[in-house]
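User: For this week's homework, look closely at the record that follows, marking any run of repeated tokens, and judge whether sequence predicts the tokens.
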Amino acid sequence: MRAAWYDRQGPAREVLQVGELPDPWPGEGEVRVRVSVSGIHVGDLGKRQGWWGSTMMFPRVVPHGDGAGMIDAVGLGVDPSRIGERVWIYLAQSYRPFGTAAEYTVVPARHAVTLPAGVPYEQAAGLGIPGITAHRAIFADGPVAGQRVVVTGALGAVGRAALAVARRGDAIVIATVRKADQIADALAAGAHHAVDTAGGDVAARILEYTGGEPIDRVAELAFDVNVATDLEILRTGGVIATYATGAAEPRIPYWPLGFKNITVRFLSNDDFPEQANETAATELTAALVGGDLRYPIAARLPLADIARAHELVEQGSASGRIVLDI
């Protein structure tokens, strides 16, 4: 099969290779997916670069945890009727060496989620890591119906999914974006209200919208920068569910958080409970089918251009996701 891989960590153009590898075959409880589109997430870049102190768990890695395609073979214990099924894939390269940057990938059957015919592969191909993280950020501490939820970085990959699932969960959803000209996009993506951080006094403008009523939970993109604002807007007993930070070792205002009995939930996608993954996958698929979640696609590149695709993701694309056509 045609595939991309790296045998050591480092810059994309120095370590990524494209060539032929043996076709994989599914083991017990697994399915093989002929990949159509492979998604790229910052976590894939981190594993390849060695960010956050990560090391290679395997001597050779085919990158990317997310993708979409069609099941073409099943292992022992999997219903053969799944052959020919359109699916989106998550955790393909979590504690496993070979992800979706290849013509074929093998995953546990439960990590290949049925994808209805009306949903394009490119929409589902990058859903797993950001989408399941978003769902966990919103729902890990219970239902949100009637609650006031703030989603920071609302137009990012996680943010868009968080807006969609929070809105579908009947929350009152408030988004933060960087610039005023992004407010309309945040509202279109599912927010009831949006605030640009460039305008200053973010906490006051959020609470003005709620009539002074405090926020129940925050899905937080930038814990280090925003924790003070989160403290200002959250109710006693509220939740910060954070999945990223700029500073690796941020200062934490222990006593202010403690006095308000704030729960700070730190999230990392590789190790969510399996039931949480499956619940998220079901709801995210429904959000795609219902049109509540859509990702703008900034670029679709061929597998041969994987190094360029990684560089584009590293640079950050405000206009949408980068995917590989396999």
In short: The longest helix spans residues 274-289. The chain has eleven helices and 15 strands. The chain has two domains: 2-127+295-325, 130-270. The longest strand covers residues 30-39.
